[in-house]
Automatic annotation (TrEMBL), chain A:
Signal peptide range in chain numbering: 1-27
CDD domains reported for this sequence: PBP2_Bug_TTT
Family that this chain belongs to: Belongs to the UPF0065 (bug) family.
Pfam family, one: TctC
InterPro entries from the UniProt entry: BUG, Bug_dom1
Source organism of the structure: Palleronia caenipelagi
Keywords tagged on the record: Signal
Protein name (Swiss-Prot/TrEMBL): Tripartite tricarboxylate transporter substrate binding protein
TrEMBL record, chain B:
Protein name: Tripartite tricarboxylate transporter permease
Keywords of this entry: Membrane, Transmembrane, Transmembrane helix
Transmembrane segments: 20-39, 46-69, 75-95, 107-132, 138-159, 166-188, 200-222, 262-286, 325-346, 358-380, 386-407, 414-430, 473-490
Organism phylogeny: Bacteria, Pseudomonadati, Pseudomonadota, Alphaproteobacteria, Rhodobacterales
Sequence ranges assigned to domain DUF112 in this UniProt record: 20-442
InterPro entries assigned to the protein according to its UniProt record, in alphabetical order: DUF112_TM
Entry coiled-coil feature ranges: none
Length: 325, 505
């Protein structure tokens, strides 16, 4: 008996050793030992911030992470603060960052010593949409009204948006080029600030993401003029797209997660798995339809390739803006 | 009447045993978190946020609000006992709170702070209950120009009423503003003043690092030098008789406290402004309206009551734009906002219509949280006062450790610890030369907001500087600022002419 028992134990031991040895990349092998810091590349109250906090809440509600996720806003300098911070966190397994398009534009515009190729891609959760907004009290009802009003203002039309060189300013530059107009671009810290200033009448228009302006829209304070999407957005069925009005303007904002350089592959697998479960959750599915987001999950090498391709596109876009900054 | 009905429903929620228990736990935890230099309401709320999923949303927000409130009360404790403001909102409390403690009146100062906080909290909750919805429009009227003018006004109250050497105050404000530009430019994203190319400077210099440095380390150095072996604080005791005496004293402060509450509520309500300028302006106004301004800075009881009413009132006020506009007025309310998003509530104009249970549950819990906070606080004052009776040699080392740990904890960067030491030595030298520290610290806190709003205004007005004066609200603030700036000059002239018997008075 004793002999068999020992042999069985040995076999079991051997088997388990093989298992451990064979599958080092299994998500179960690694789990966070302390709270995970979720760096947000934007200020409080904006689209990126709200979304990151939503992710955190779903992760917590569905128990997708063994340790709490703590969101930290580092929105200074169009996200440069966050990028710099992530760079200094090389090899850290307990930091992830929620990105937006400034992930490529900020290092392109400013030499902050950050190369995004070094970071570890985790997962792309969604593509966000852009809509042209005006205050509901204004006389502008259509895109033609808008273009006419901007032209009449002679360059004093105040377009509010996030930091110079960030998405909102790129979209603004696209509008200026397409319609041959000139606006005064006023940068704010986050999309929430922009929406509030548009409602308060301190700026004349914005290109907020739907989620940033939705509350004010439902309260009847803001009016959508046109969407920068190929198809109409479900929550604004009466708002035409630029495309159907004959202007092929389409621009997306990616919402992804990345990690510092040299994160342990097992940790990368853990987070990838966590976000995959998140993407499949019911809350996330409902949110994307309600807030006019395109859920579009992408991970690993494919995501890195996407990042680099987008970076090249934005380099061209910024180059064509020229005097933009 | 509809309002009362809503409020009654709200109390139905907040007076449930579970919620009452939550309120007491929350304020107690908040009180200790706020009392620790280096930890403030932001940290408290952040730590507890994930735990709130085990209770229903209305209980969860009550817990968070209770911690927020408790921490606002607690912030005064380290300001008074150690002279180190635990949060930027409590800087003004050190001006008179610290001298009171040094005179052995720590107990009275703490009672005053607690009662003043209670009054400020209660008056502002009343204002909140009555005017929450209409006031949201006032917050909307605040654009970049108004933000700038308001911050300018906060600085000028300081210059005009500081009493210290005006020139030195202005020099310290400028130094603080210069320090506030370290890091990445908000608008263009360019790095500025990255000394020795140290990566730590990219995220700027945080308020805590500077405050702990100049108040904590600087204070220790200064005390060691001036007192050598004598204890820094006269042993203080607290009896019921003193409590009674304290309440009688506080009874004389109604004017200061009601002014402070109203001011705090309105300034706190404005997005981006928050409790720091509110506390500061309240201190300034208390000094302006008193008959004996010379007592300020030397342990005047009003000097504790004024900022404490205002910062608590402001913390309630800052909930208003968060609930009605979805715009957080302070970092802590930003976290609360995050919590609401988690629970599936959409803050914004529709919240009051779609989720009345939640909103009124929260508002009514502010009444209970306030009451709980003052009770817990008063009960614990003997403990805090007892802590002061430690021998100076022990206290000094303890404070030193607290300073370094408190500075390291939030960012976990050794860079910040070295900065604290550097600021401590620098602050000590400046203090020896009689330079006031408060303007330096406040300039660092308000500098980024001031710069950002100034540039936004200039951009949107095509470089027209007159825009600040032309807009009615910001014009008024600018005019007031100018008046405050000229005040020392007028006083000086008065003093000159005062020798002539026929002069005013």
């Amino acid at each position: 008996m004793g002999y068999i028992f020992t042999r069985r134990t040995l076999m079991a031991l051997a088997a388990s050793t093989t298992l451990i040895g064979a599958a080092p990349a299994l998500a179960e092998d690694w789990s966070p030992q302390k709270p995970v810091e979720m760096v947000i590349m934007a200020g409080q109250g904006g689209g990126a911030d709200r979304l990151a906090r939503l992710f955190q809440s779903i992760i917590q509600q569905e128990n997708l992470s063994k340790m709490p996720i703590l969101p930290v806003n580092k929105g200074g300098g169009s996200g440069a603060e966050a990028l710099r911070y992530l760079k200094d966190k090389g090899g850290d397994n307990h930091t992830i960052m929620a990105t937006l398009n400034s992930y490529y534009t900020t290092p392109l515009r400013t030499d902050i010593g950050v190369n995004i190729e070094d970071f570890t891609p985790i997962a792309r959760m969604a593509l966000d949409t852009f809509v042209l907004w005006v205050n509901a009290d204004s006389d502008i009802q259509t895109l033609d009204d808008y273009v006419a009003a901007v032209k009449e203002s002679g360059g004093t039309w105040k377009m509010g948006g996030t930091g110079t060189g960030q998405e909102d300013s790129l979209v603004t530059a696209m509008l200026e080029k397409e319609f041959d107009i000139k606006v005064t671009y006023v940068p704010f810290k986050g999309g929430g600030d922009v929406a509030k200033n548009l409602v308060g009448g301190h700026i004349d228009s914005s290109v907020n993401n739907p989620s940033e302006a939705l509350g004010f829209y439902q309260a009847g304070k803001l009016r959508p003029i046109a969407a920068l999407t190929p198809e109409r957005i479900e929550v604004f069925p009466d708002t035409p797209t630029m495309t159907e009005l004959g202007h092929g303007l389409v621009y997306w904002m990616q919402r992804s997660f990345v990690a510092p350089k040299d994160m342990d592959p097992a940790a990368v697998a853990y987070y990838t798995d966590m976000f995959e479960k998140l993407a499949a959750s019911e809350e996330w599915q409902t949110y994307t339809t309600e807030k006019a987001l395109m859920a579009d999950f992408l991970t690993g090498e494919a995501l890195q390739a996407y990042f680099l391709e987008e970076r090249d596109k934005h380099a061209d876009l910024l180059g064509s803006m020229g005097e933009g900054s | 009447m509809e309002l009362l009905g809503h409020l009654a429903d709200g109390f139905g929620t907040s007076l449930m045993p579970l919620n009452l228990l939550i309120v007491f736990l929350g304020v107690t935890a908040g009180l200790f978190i706020g009392a620790m230099p280096g930890l403030g309401s932001v940290n408290g709320v952040a730590i507890v946020l994930p735990l709130t999923f085990i209770v229903p949303p209305s209980s969860a927000i009550i817990l968070l609000a209770a911690i927020y409130y408790g921490a606002m009360y607690g912030g005064a404790i380290s300001s008074i006992l150690l002279g180190i403001p635990g949060a930027s909102t409590a800087v003004a409390t050190t001006f008179d709170g610290r001298p009171m403690a040094q005179q052995g009146k720590a107990g009275l100062a703490l009672i005053t702070a607690a009662v003043a906080s209670f009054v400020g909290g209660t008056i502002s909750v009343l204002l909140f209950t009555l005017f929450a919805t209409p006031l949201a429009d006032v917050a909307l009227a605040f654009g970049p120009a108004e933000e700038f003018a308001l911050v300018l006004l906060a600085f000028m109250t300081f210059v005009g009423l500081g009493g210290d050497d005006v020139l030195k105050t202005i020099i310290m404000i400028c130094l603080g503003l210069a320090l506030s530009t370290v890091g990445l430019d908000l608008i263009s994203g360019q790095p500025r003043l990255i000394f020795f190319d140290l990566p730590g400077f990219y995220s700027g210099i945080s308020f805590l690092v500077l405050a702990i440095g100049v108040y904590g380390i600087g204070e220790i150095l200064y005390t060691i030098e001036t007192q050598k072996t004598a204890p820094s604080v006269t042993p203080a005791r607290l009896t019921f008789r003193e409590l009674g005496y304290g309440i009688k004293e506080i009874n004389k402060l109604w004017k200061t406290m009601s002014l402070g509450s109203a001011l705090g509520f309105f300034v706190g309500m404005l997005p981006a402004a928050g409790a720091t300028p509110a506390a500061l302006m309240s201190y300034g106004i208390a000094k302006l309206t008193t008959k004996t301004p010379e007592r300020f800075g030397k342990g005047a009881i009003e000097g504790v009551a004024a900022p404490e009413t205002a910062n608590n009132a402001a913390s309630t006020g800052s909930l208003l734009p968060m609930l009605t506009l979805g715009i957080p007025g302070s970092p802590t309310t930003a976290l609360l906002l995050g919590g609401m998003v988690m629970w599936g509530l959409v803050p914004g104009p529709m919240l009051f219509i779609e989720q009345p249970d939640f909103v009124w549950g929260l508002i009514s819990s502010l009444y209970t949280a306030n009451l709980a906070a003052v009770l817990v606080n008063l009960a614990l004052i003997p403990l805090f006062v007892w802590a002061l009776r430690m021998p100076f040699t022990v206290l000094c080392a303890l404070v030193f450790v607290l300073c370094l740990v408190g500075g390291f904890a939030p960012s976990q960067k050794l860079h910040d610890v070295w900065l604290i030491v550097a600021f401590g030595v620098g602050g000590y030298i400046l203090r020896k030369a009689d330079y006031p520290m408060a303007p330096l610290v406040l300039a660092l806190v308000l500098g980024p907001l001031m710069e950002k709003s100034f540039r936004q205004t200039l951009i949107s007005e095509q470089g027209n500087v007159l825009a600040f004066v032309e807009r009615p609200l910001s014009g008024t603030f600018i005019a007031l600022s100018a008046a405050f700036l000229l005040l020392p000059l007028i006083k000086h002239l008065k003093r000159l002419t005062g020798r002539v018997p026929s002069a005013a008075k």
